C-alpha cells in the first residue's frame, strides 16, 4: 500500500477516535463524579499510541488529541496539547526500555501516565497563572483518574490499534522503523 | 538506535512543545486572545450539536436508572419544592411595594440595580468540564445576547461570571473558582472587601477587611458596585461563616459560603445583561 494512503487513512481514523473520546468525555465521563471529580480519559490516547507505535507517535497523538480537548476546556488553550505531547513521548521512551509484550506494561503505563499527566497539567497551569488548578483535592483526583484509566485503557488501546494499524498493517504512523522492530 | 532517527524524534517533540507553548502564549496574551477564542467558538459551535445528539440519546437511559433508584426521594423533593414555590410567590406579592420604593431610592443614588436590568434565563448543560476549574456551560451564547463579563445569578445570589461566550453556549466561572474575585460590602457598609474563590472543594474567603472590624456570623455581603466593579451593586454573594483576628495580621481571617447553592447542579441560571463600565 502507498505510504501516503496509509498516513491519510491513519489520520482520518485517529480523528474519529479522538472525536469519539471527546464525546464520551463531555457526556458520560462528566456525569460520573466521585467527590466532585470526574474521570479524564484524554490521557489514554497518547499513552496507548506510545505503547503501540513508539514515542514519536505518542507525542504526535498527544499533541493533537490534547489540542482537540483544549477546545472544550476553560483552561488555557495549548496546555493539554503540551502535556499530551510530553506524556506520549515519555511513555513511549519508557516502553522502549521495557518488554512491550509484558502484560503489566499497559495497566501500569495507564495508571502512572494518567496520574503524572494530571499532576503536570495542574503544575503547568499554575505556572501559567491559573493558581486555582493546584487548589483541588488531589487525593480524590488521583484515585478517580487511576481507577478510570485502569478500567478504560484496554478499550481505548483497541480503538487506537484500529486507528494506527489498519487491517493489521504494522507500518508505523511515522515510519516503518520507528518502533525498533519490536512486536506488540 | 540509529542517531538520525533519535534526532528526528527529538526534533518532532521539540517542535510540538514549541508549538504548544506558542498557542498558550497566544491564548494568555490579552491582545491575541481573540484568535484562540475565535477558534474555540467555531469548534464549540460545530461540536455542540453533535454532543447534544449524544446527550439526547444517553439522557433517557440515565434518567430511567436514576429515577427508578431514587423514586421515593424525588417525590419528596418535588413536594418540598412545590411548597417552597408557593411560599416564595406569597413573599413576592408582599414585597412588590417595598421593591418599588427601593428601586426609586437606588435610582436616586445612581446605582445600578439588578431588578432594573434585563436577564437571560439559561440552562446549565455541563458542569466542571475540567477537574481543575469550577465552571458551568450554559445553553445560551452570543446569539442570545450573552457576552463575556456578564454576571450570572442563581437561586440565592451571585453564581459567577461569563468568561467565554460562543455562538450558542457560554462558559461561566463560578464564584468558588480559584480565580474568582468579587468586590463586596455589607448592608450597613461596615464590611468592605473581596470574596475570593479557593477552588470547588475549599471554603471561600473574604479578604481585605481591616482587623477588628465588627462582624456577625451569618451576615450577608453583597456586590459593592464601586467604581470599575465587575458586577452591579446589590447582588447577594456570600454569608460569613467564621472569622477571627490573628495578632499582627493586616486583615481579618474570614471564611464565607456562597449564597447561591453551588453544591447542587445548577439547572437554570439568569445571565444579567450588564457589562462593566469601560
In short:
The complex is a heterodimer of chains A (184) and B (278). Chain A has 184 residues and is an all-alpha fold. Chain A is 67% helix and 0% strand.
Number of domains of chain A: 1
Question: For the largest beta sheet of chain B, what order do the strands appear in spatially?
Answer: 1-2-5-4-3-12
**Alpha-beta classification of chain A:** mainly alpha
| Helical residue percent band of chain A | 55-70%
Rounded to the nearest angstrom, the distance between the terminal CA atoms of chain B is 60 Å
Summed over residues and divided by their number, the pLDDT of chain A gives a mean of 85
Strand content of chain B: 25-35%
Keywords, separated by commas or semicolons:
heterodimer; A: 184 residues; mainly alpha; Arp2/3 complex 21 kDa subunit ARPC3; 6 helices; 67% helix; globular; disordered C terminus; B: 278 residues; alpha+beta; Thrombin, subunit H; six-stranded antiparallel beta barrel; six-stranded antiparallel β-barrel; 36% helix; 25% strand
Amino acid at each position: 500500500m502507498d505510504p501516503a494512503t496509509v498516513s491519510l487513512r491513519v489520520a482520518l481514523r485517529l480523528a474519529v477516535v479522538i472525536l469519539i473520546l471527546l464525546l464520551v468525555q463531555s457526556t458520560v465521563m462528566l456525569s460520573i463524579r466521585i467527590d466532585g471529580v470526574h474521570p479524564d480519559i484524554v490521557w489514554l490516547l497518547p499513552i496507548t499510541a506510545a505503547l503501540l507505535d513508539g514515542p514519536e507517535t505518542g507525542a504526535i497523538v498527544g499533541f493533537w488529541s490534547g489540542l482537540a480537548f483544549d477546545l472544550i476546556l476553560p483552561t488555557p488553550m495549548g496546555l493539554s496539547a503540551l502535556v499530551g505531547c510530553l506524556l506520549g513521548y515519555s511513555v513511549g521512551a519508557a516502553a522502549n526500555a521495557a518488554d512491550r509484550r509484558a502484560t503489566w506494561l499497559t495497566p501500569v503505563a495507564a495508571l502512572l501516565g494518567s496520574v503524572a499527566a494530571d499532576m503536570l497539567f495542574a503544575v503547568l497551569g499554575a505556572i501559567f497563572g491559573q493558581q486555582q488548578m493546584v487548589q483541588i483535592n488531589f487525593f480524590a483526583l488521583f484515585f478517580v483518574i487511576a481507577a478510570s484509566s485502569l478500567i478504560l485503557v484496554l478499550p481505548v488501546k483497541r480503538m487506537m490499534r484500529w486507528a494506527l494499524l489498519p487491517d493489521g498493517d504494522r507500518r508505523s504512523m511515522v515510519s516503518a522503523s520507528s518502533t525498533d522492530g519490536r512486536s506488540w | 538506535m540509529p542517531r538520525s532517527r533519535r534526532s528526528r524524534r527529538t526534533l518532532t517533540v521539540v517542535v510540538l512543545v514549541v508549538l504548544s507553548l506558542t498557542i498558550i502564549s497566544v491564548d494568555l496574551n490579552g491582545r491575541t486572545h481573540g484568535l484562540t477564542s475565535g477558534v474555540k467558538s467555531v469548534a464549540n459551535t460545530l461540536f455542540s450539536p453533535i454532543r447534544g445528539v449524544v446527550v439526547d440519546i444517553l439522557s433517557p437511559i440515565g434518567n430511567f436508572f436514576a429515577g427508578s433508584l431514587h423514586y421515593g426521594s424525588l417525590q419528596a423533593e418535588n413536594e418540598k419544592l412545590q411548597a417552597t414555590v408557593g411560599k416564595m410567590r406569597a413573599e413576592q406579592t408582599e414585597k412588590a411595594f417595598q421593591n418599588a420604593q427601593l428601586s426609586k431610592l437606588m435610582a436616586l443614588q445612581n446605582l445600578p440595580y439588578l431588578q432594573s436590568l434585563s436577564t437571560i434565563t439559561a440552562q446549565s448543560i455541563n458542569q466542571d468540564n475540567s477537574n481543575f476549574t469550577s465552571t458551568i456551560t450554559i445553553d445560551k451564547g452570543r446569539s442570545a445576547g450573552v457576552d463575556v463579563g456578564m454576571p450570572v445569578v442563581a437561586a440565592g445570589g451571585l453564581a459567577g461570571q461569563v468568561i467565554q461566550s460562543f455562538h450558542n453556549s457560554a462558559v461561566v466561572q463560578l464564584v468558588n473558582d480559584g480565580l474568582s474575585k468579587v468586590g463586596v460590602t455589607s448592608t450597613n457598609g461596615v464590611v468592605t472587601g473581596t470574596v475570593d474563590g479557593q477552588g470547588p472543594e475549599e471554603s471561600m474567603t473574604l479578604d481585605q477587611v481591616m482587623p477588628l472590624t465588627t462582624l456577625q456570623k451569618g451576615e450577608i455581603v453583597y456586590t459593592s458596585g464601586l467604581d470599575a466593579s465587575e458586577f452591579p451593586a446589590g447582588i447577594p454573594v456570600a454569608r460569613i461563616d467564621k472569622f477571627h483576628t490573628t495578632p499582627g495580621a493586616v486583615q481579618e481571617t474570614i471564611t464565607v459560603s456562597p449564597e447561591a447553592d453551588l453544591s447542587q447542579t445548577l439547572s437554570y441560571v439568569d445571565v444579567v445583561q450588564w457589562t462593566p463600565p469601560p
